[in-house]
Amino acid sequence: MKIVNYLILIVFGALLVYGSAWLPERGNPNEPLDRELSYAGTPGAAYYYIKNAKKDAYTDNMVTVILADYRGYDTLGEETVIFTAGLCCYLLLRQRRVNHDKKG
Amino acid sequence: MIKRDENPILALGGRVISPFIMLFALYVIFHGHYSPGGGFQGGTMLAAAVLLVRLSAGSDMGELQFKKSWGTYLGAVGVLIYFGTGLVAMLWGGNYLNYEYLPLSFPANENRAWGILSIEIGVGLAVMGILAAIYDDLVEGEPNAWNA
What we know:
The complex is a heterodimer of chains A (104) and B (148).
Chain A: H1 2-19, H2 45-57, H3 62-70, H4 72-103
Chain B: H1 8-30, H2 39-57, H3 59-65, H4 70-91, H5 108-140
Helix pairs in contact in B: 1-2, 2-3, 2-5, 4-5
């Protein structure tokens, strides 16, 4: 059984290495991810962000601009997820305490 | 649960370090425009400062700094700041979350910078409140954890 586990791990590791062999090259403007225009003729996202982030939002940190401005809805959802997790903990754990107090 | 004695070094050390962690967390939030950081990271550090006092000096001492009931409310306030920023932008004529239309008398790109700061504060408060609240909720189930 242990040998099977190790085999599965090795195979999956080899798959990951195999899959990472053809990742796009970083910083190469001719890669499909970083082109100015995609194959369909629409503006490429990465190119647009790098070129316009500072100009659009007057903020040096491009990551902040993408996180909070260009992808504001995504961050809104993330925060809602965190809040929901907190509410679930509140409801589940506090509820259990109340029941426990009633019994004892 | 292991019973622990009050340890003055831990208690005092946690209480001394906690405000400095909070200060650095505020720096991380407010300097997120220019350096790595932002609401999530800064909020986590704020929560770490709160939880450090709770872990080192006990929940009673932590209650003096940050009440147990505040966490969930603070999380709600943070989420409302985020939603409210988007809503204000919408009421002043733009799309939802389009900070260009915030009612500030700056050029459009500076408006966006202020909008980003506003939602980073919202995210930071929400993350801090929720993390502290989750810890408090978990500890609630263990009545003899600290103050036995």
